[in-house]
UniProtKB/TrEMBL annotation:
It is an enzyme of class 3 (hydrolase). NAD(+) binds at residues 158-160, 192, 221-228, 244, 279, 300-302, 347, 354. InterPro entries: Adenosylhomocyst_ase-like_sf (IPR042172), Adenosylhomocysteinase-like (IPR000043), Ado_hCys_hydrolase_NAD-bd (IPR015878), NAD(P)-bd_dom_sf (IPR036291), S-Ado-L-homoCys_hydrolase_CS (IPR020082). Its EC number is 3.13.2.1. This is Adenosylhomocysteinase. It comes from Planktothricoides raciborskii GIHE-MW2. It catalyses: S-adenosyl-L-homocysteine + H2O = L-homocysteine + adenosine. Binds 1 NAD(+) per subunit.
Length: 425
């Protein structure tokens, strides 16, 4: 049964899960005060009246709060999953039943279903696309060029999506504005660092229940996600090794107190490996060959391409599920390697993704970026656009207020000093 008045259907696992989803969405909302304020304003001002919107996000309690805020603002919104394993089925059910939002997302959906959902979303003829990884945007450009005329613009949530948008721009195919939500200060400093740091370890612990203290954990990549993961793993008592290809980030990791070395060497030491690079096959055949028996590998980067699982399969005589999201590959050599979450985002596959308090800022950016696109319809150049500093600062100020933290303001003397160049030694 469709419990909504929308034209569109839905595809969720089980609508009877809605009451649990509703309860959990409300719980997450308690930690999302900034988004709540934005929702209340949207409900008054209706900035999205007449706007068709597609959100391709991880279908979590936090995304539900975003979708509800956008709908309160008048958006005709459709939600699809941005990853086959990240959907929270109770949340998807509640959005359909309680909020009347069409959702197409089922945890564990196969790749064909995932792509079919992308097309169903595009059938909605979106004026705005909220993307997480740029799959909807890439499909629009590759397969639905004629629909670009309907589009006001897109917003992008994650580093991988930004890298893809930059490549689209370089290839001359990005013919509309795309808001770079990821690079807002109130997004990546918190979501990528503290969100990934906590949720990645949460996913690993939920999947394996192993003790991290005393283990050697190799963090592959020292971007914001790598920094957060390494920092939190150290905090749990692990010995952390970082691998990098960027010399500056490698120095940073070394000065943050981590051992830095190439993967060929780190592979021999690690009890556990966490990939957060956004790149392909950063752990591959030659690395599996030298790993310890029982080494655990997992990924917290956007796509499931960081670990070369095909190479691992080729070396294995058997793959067995030993716990949910935990598969043991028994190698022909006799040792075994454990893979978590099929090499997909472990924080969303085995846990619930970033905590609500950081998603509050990420999704405040998404909400305000959508409003900015509508307000500036037809005025923005094609290509990537930063979130305006005023919006970033507004989100930070609202978050501080919600946290009960006050800060200093500049005195008139300080303002004058900061604006002058004549006063020196
Ligand atoms: N990405 C990482 N964590 C997330 C969450 N909790 N909700 C939506 N997207 C996310």
């Amino acid at each position: 049964m469709i419990a909504t008045a929308t034209k569109l259907n839905h595809e969720v696992k089980d609508l009877s899960l809605a009451p649990l989803g509703k309860q959990r969405i409300s719980w997450a909302g308690r930690e999302m005060p900034v988004l709540k304020l934005i929702k209340e304003r949207f409900a008054q001002e209706k900035p999205f009246a007449g706007i068709r919107l597609v959100a391709c996000c991880h279908v979590t309690t936090e995304t539900a709060n975003l979708a509800i805020a956008l709908k309160a603002g008048g958006a005709d919104a459709v939600l699809i999953a941005s990853n086959p394993l990240s959907t929270q089925d109770d949340v998807a059910a509640s959005l359909v039943v309680d909020e009347g939002i069409p959702v197409f997302a089922i945890k564990g959906e196969d790749n064909a279903t995932y792509h079919r959902h992308v097309h169903i979303a595009l059938d909605h003829k979106p004026n705005i696309i909220i993307d997480d990884g740029s799959d909807v945007t890439a499909t629009l450009i590759q397969e639905r060029q004629h629909q670009i005329a309907d589009l006001i613009g897109t917003t992008e949530e994650t580093t991988t999506g930004i890298v893809r948008l930059q490549a689209m721009f370089k290839d001359g195919v990005l013919s509309f504005p795309a808001m770079n939500v990821n690079d807002a200060d109130t997004k990546h400093f918190f979501d990528n660092r503290y969100g990934t740091g906590q949720s990645t370890l949460d996913g690993i612990i939920r999947a394996t229940n192993i003790l991290l203290a005393g283990k050697t954990i190799v963090v592959v990549g020292y971007g914001w996600c790598g920094k957060g993961t390494a920092m939190r793993a150290k905090g749990m008592g692990a010995n952390v090794i970082v691998t990098e290809i960027n010399p500056v980030k490698a120095i940073e990791a070394a000065m943050d107190g981590f051992q830095v070395m190439p993967m060929a060497e780190a592979a021999t030491y690690g009890d556990m490996f966490i990939t957060v690079t956004g790149n392909k096959h950063v752990i591959r055949g030659e690395h599996f060959d030298v790993m310890k028996d029982g080494a655990i590998v997992c990924n917290s980067g956007h796509f499931d391409i960081e670990i070369d699982l095909e190479a691992l399969k080729g070396k294995s005589s058997e793959v067995r599920t030993v716990r949910p999201f935990t598969e043991e590959y028994v190698l022909k050599s006799g040792k075994s390697i454990v893979v978590l979450g099929e090499g997909r985002l472990i924080n969303l596959a085995a846990a619930e993704g970033h905590p609500s308090a950081v998603m509050d800022m990420s999704f405040a950016n998404q909400a305000l970026a959508c409003e900015y696109l509508v307000k500036n319809k037809g005025k923005l150049e094609p290509g990537l656009h930063s979130i305006p500093t005023e919006l970033d600062q507004e989100i930070a100020s609202l978050k501080l207020k919600a946290m009960g933290i006050t800060i200093d303001t500049l005195t008139p003397e300080q303002i004058s000093y900061m604006n002058s160049w004549t006063a020196g030694t």
